[in-house]
Design a protein that fits this description.
With about 325 residues, the protein is mostly helical. The chain has 16 helices and no strands. The protein is elongated.
Length: about 325
């Protein structure tokens, strides 16, 4: 191979990595990353940082928040002073993705705001993540404007992401149609991580409407998908939702708690705030507060501190 042909091929690797990752072709991305690392001397700084972002993308999915921050910090240290909006926006997006996976929607929303304003192509791919973070912190109101702006920017939001983003804040009459639209291509062109996240969102929506059988089916599929990918943060979150849906309408425990009340009481006894509990279970903090009010009434207590005196064995305690 001629040297100039070899260099051109090496320089193309970061773009190939990014495309593979956007389509959830993670094994292909790993192979391309290994090739790029072996040939790192042949490319410039910008292309090398593209490979750094590809590694960060995989780490964000697997839940290595600290390493994502370290690697994307190197990217931002170069991209910001050099005015490379694409690299900077991708770094912010991956920080947001990592924060979502570790249960920190506030940090995710901050990073994703920066990503969406940094480059329109990144905004097209990050809009569903932004919607998830915004809903989790009670800022559903900002999603519509962001989605509209992303649609107008000409890069084309992937259908599954656009529908999921819209479903998360849709009116009751439209939400299910949008969730199903987000999943309609899954059987013919699977995107394992993307599809698992859509199933998780849809299953959580079904569970909140007491459609237990349908919720279990979607959540079980999501759990298998996340577990197969080693996406630990999402696996834990869907497991908590499955626990509640799995016992469904089956009655009460020694205190007369429903399964959801039992679960929320256990998290509150650990010291988690209503917002933190809601994030883990896909509920609003107001809904969590309502469940806790029922818990307090049933056992005759007046504060969260008194939950420590209850026997809540059997409640799944998830790491933060």
């Amino acid at each position: 191979m001629r040297p100039e042909r070899r260099t051109a091929s090496a320089a193309a690797l970061p773009a190939l990595q990014a495309n593979a990752l956007l389509l959830d072709r993670f094994e292909q991305a790993k192979l391309l990353i290994r090739t790029a690392v072996a040939r790192s001397a042949e490319v410039g700084v910008s292309d090398a940082l593209g490979t750094e972002l590809a590694l960060s993308h995989l780490l964000a999915i697997h839940g290595d928040h600290t390493e994502v921050w370290r690697r994307t910090g190197r990217v931002l240290a170069f991209a910001v002073p050099h005015g490379d909006g694409m690299l900077a926006a991708r770094a912010r997006w991956l920080r947001g993705l990592a924060a979502l996976g570790t249960g920190d929607p506030e940090s995710a929303l901050h990073e994703l705001r920066e990503a969406l304003s940094g480059h329109p192509a990144v905004a097209a791919w990050a809009v569903a993540d932004f919607a998830e973070a915004a809903v989790a912190v009670g800022r559903q109101d900002v999603v519509g404007a962001v989605l509209t702006r992303a649609r107008r920017q000409g890069y084309g939001i992937p259908r599954r992401l656009e529908f999921r983003a819209a479903a998360l804040t849709a009116e009751e009459s439209d939400a299910e149609r949008l969730f199903l639209a987000a999943l309609q291509d899954a059987d013919t062109a699977a995107m394992p991580f993307t599809d698992a996240r859509a199933r998780f969102a849809y299953g959580s929506w079904l569970a909140r409407r007491h459609r237990t059988t349908a919720a279990r089916s979607q959540l079980a599929c999501a759990h298998r998908g996340f577990a197969a990918l080693g996406a630990e943060g999402w696996t834990r979150r869907v497991a908590a939702e499955l626990q509640a849906a799995g016992v469904g309408e089956v009655g009460v425990d020694r205190y007369g708690f429903t399964p959801r009340e039992h679960q929320i009481a256990g998290f509150a006894a650990q010291g988690l705030s209503n917002r933190e509990i809601g994030w883990r279970l896909g509920l609003s903090h107001r809904t969590v507060g309502s469940h806790l009010s029922h818990v307090f009434h049933k056992v005759g207590i007046a504060s969260r501190a008194q939950l420590s005196g209850l026997d809540l064995t059997g409640v799944e305690m998830m790491p933060g």
